[in-house]
Amino acid sequence: MNSFMVNKSLLLVPMSLSAFGVSAKNKPDTGCDKPLNIIYIMTDDHSFQTISCYDGRYNRTPNLDRLAREGVRFGNSFVTNSISGPSRAVLVTGKHSHKNGFLKNEGGQPFDGSQQTFPKLLQQNGYQTALIGKWHLFSTPTGFDHWEILPGQGSYYNPDFITSEGTHREHGYVTNIITDKGIDYLENRDKSKPFCLMLHHKAVHRIWMSDTCDLREFEDRTFPVPETFWDDYAGRPAAADQEMSIDKDMDLTYDLKMLDSTILTPLKGAYVWGERARMTPEQRAQWDSVYQPLIDRFLADSLSGKELVEWKFQRYMRDYLKSVKSLDDNIGRLMEYLEKEGLLENTLIVYASDQGFYMGEHGWFDKRFMYEESLRTPLLIRLPDCWKGVERGRVVREMVQNIDYAPTFLTLAGATVPEDIQGVSLVPLLKDEKPKSWRDAIYYHYYEFPGEHHVRRHYGVRTDRYKLIHFYGDDIDTWELYDLKTDPTELHNRYDDPKLAKVRARMHERLEQLREQYDDRTE
Ligand code: SGN
Ligand code: CA
Q: Whose CA is nearest to atom 16 of ligand 1?
């Protein structure tokens, strides 16, 4: 490149940015002339174990894998509080739960929408912002030029949507509808401004219902149970006392759809009058054509004991993976649209879940615990084509958390990151700058107890190698310490092991430092 070309491109950057009303002063140098658009796709309860670029054991997700191949996969991505509403509040504020005020799904306050959020700051910096899908914060969304949300958890079939005008019902399967709405929004947006679109899926939330076209997928597959499936929870009282076990808490009718008058389960009504009642006769007929033979077989086999538990695991995996397939297909459909419209050039595409999920590890479904499967969340970031000079398909090993998304988006938009945001921009990691002073520990705090699934309140610290957790509350006050190198599946609580006395002291110290740094005095 000759000097004339360099000068010309330097001149062009600020001009084209200001034409969009976007401040250029803080914008990182990525080689992109135009302001970057942002598409943030968040799914619900999507485990990294069921994304093939993270874990190839169960299924293939070619479209998600493409995002990783054409961008960056975060191999150590964590949440701060493993549950939906809190995770979404952390996402928009860039602050831990005790700072944004939204501590738990149930029994807390609605999200205070008058506070600072990154969509509002993007708006102030010339962006148009949109939110489509699950919101789950119990207050009207603020900071969005366009929003259309599911009430609460939303429904898989013929879902309702809330807009500023009221509630209306759509016909079809929720993952397709949310994707359609996202594409519609992009078609009709104001093309003179950059955009930030947040597409929040309902899938793969309980009760894992697939699209009619995917009902027969995975039915011929049998999955190995995870090595911790028959965990006895020795030395871990909080883990022993939860209500999220496939064996004792997964409901045969509600969760696994075994609907028959002879099968009596506590949650049968929830299935009959909930999701199933929403289906049209045609949709229900398609479901019955697949599930009725499964029910007949189940009744004929009269399974019990371990056999029954393993059968439940297989049904759970199949239902869950069917709804993952639809997600992946819909990401593919969105990518096709973006490609056709030339939007891959200057759009950053993020894929994350609101938290991780147990695929039978420790015998569980659900999340909430600070153990690895639910502390982690998938995070894939496809870089815009205009972003030059970085290797694509990299795996980033630094520990990142969902407090980091807001400052990342603000940085990419050229906006100032307010000092009270607790996360750190991921841009240096996206640029492969290998920052020397990246965080060496993450902080976690879960609050929803008493509550569904009966997981005790706890907070803790995780470093590259160790994890210290404090379970607390009226009837519990226990500590757990894990060496993740020698015990990656966290079966051995070493808190009282004299061999780890020094580690334990160091981890306590680090925990106190983090509680001070993030100003968390809640317990
Ligand atoms: C619902 C589910 C729970 C789940 C919570 C929180 N029960 O209450 O199994 O843990 O949501 O999930 S259900 O009977 O309604 O399916 S979260 O992802 O929204 O946090
Ligand atoms: Ca969730």
A: 206
